[in-house]
Design goal:
mainly alpha; globular; 14 helices
């Protein structure tokens, strides 16, 4: 196993121990939701299991912040399975509960609530974009940029970078590659500042893909090479899908069909591992076209 996977397992192990030791149901439900959040992209079954345990505790409880975090995490879990309308509805539920805690007098809860509202707003942008509602998607992303910028949460710069990438991805789907490149390049310094392998991987992958579509192949290859060591160290399915899928896209644009098939197949296999129906379909189509 790669070192990043060991690090993720350590986080999961620590959370699992805290769940077992937690004396109060309120804290336990939050820890279970946090545990589920850490399983997203790694283990679909365990993510769902942790969410079910959190729901069992939360049922008939009036804990708005806990419910908000539960629905936010469940929305991300459902989004990863390609069920975008359902993910959007769950995000709306999360926002409803977070809005109730927004005026809390507790400084930590107030700060975290604002940060979560910004995150859920970004999730709504992602769901809309994946459903083809691109203008609505960009509107939510720009709103989330504004909300993250106002936050004093320590993770704000990572999330700002993700928003830039999401805006770029939406423009990419609209085949506006110059705009896509503009926003992806803006994201890179924020990712490097955060120092997270997954974030850095995506930053380089997306910039490479933009350059590829602009037929600036030398620049594309440079960014894919920058991404490669981070991707291989992580060996995370959701990251592998993007790296191998978009590297396949580079080979596609260069009409290197055999290499495109090779990379699309790896992307498809990783999509199967996390039940990502959208990308399974997308890369099967890529294989067939190649």
């Amino acid at each position: 196993l790669q070192s990043a996977l060991f690090a993720q397992n350590r986080i999961i192990d620590s959370l699992s121990k805290l769940v077992a030791l937690s004396p109060g149901d309120s804290v336990k439900s939050l820890l279970l939701t946090e545990l589920a959040s850490n399983y997203i992209g790694y283990d679909t079954a365990k993510c769902n299991q942790s969410l079910q345990k959190a729901y069992f505790i939360l049922n008939q409880k009036n804990w708005n912040y806990n419910w908000g975090y539960y629905y936010e995490t469940k929305s991300q879990y459902i989004f990863n399975q390609g069920k975008y309308p359902e993910a959007l509805l769950l995000s709306d539920s999360a926002l409803g509960f977070f809005k109730k805690t927004e005026l809390s007098q507790h400084s930590l809860i107030k700060r975290n609530t604002g940060f979560h509202i910004a995150g859920v707003t970004a999730n709504k942008g992602a769901a809309n974009s994946m459903m083809g509602n691109n203008k609505e998607g960009i509107r939510f992303f720009l709103e989330s940029l504004r909300l993250f910028d106002q936050s004093d949460h320590p993770d704000k710069f990572t999330r700002l970078a993700e928003c830039y990438n999401n805006i770029a991805t939406t423009y990419y789907s609209m085949k506006e590659y110059e705009k896509s490149m503009e926003y992806d390049v803006k994201a890179i310094p924020f990712h490097l500042r955060a120092g997270d392998n997954e974030s850095i991987s995506f930053a380089y992958i997306y910039a490479a893909s933009d350059f590829s579509m602009l037929k600036q192949f030398d620049s594309a290859k440079i960014y894919f090479l920058k991404a490669e060591p981070h991707v291989k160290e992580l060996n995370k399915p959701s990251v592998n899908i993007e790296y191998y899928g978009k590297t396949g896209g580079l080979h596609w644009t260069q009409r290197n069909w055999q290499k495109a098939i090779e990379y699309y197949t790896i992307a498809y296999d990783n999509a199967k591992k996390i039940n990502d129906g959208y990308n399974q379909a997308a890369y099967l189509r890529g294989i067939a076209d190649s």
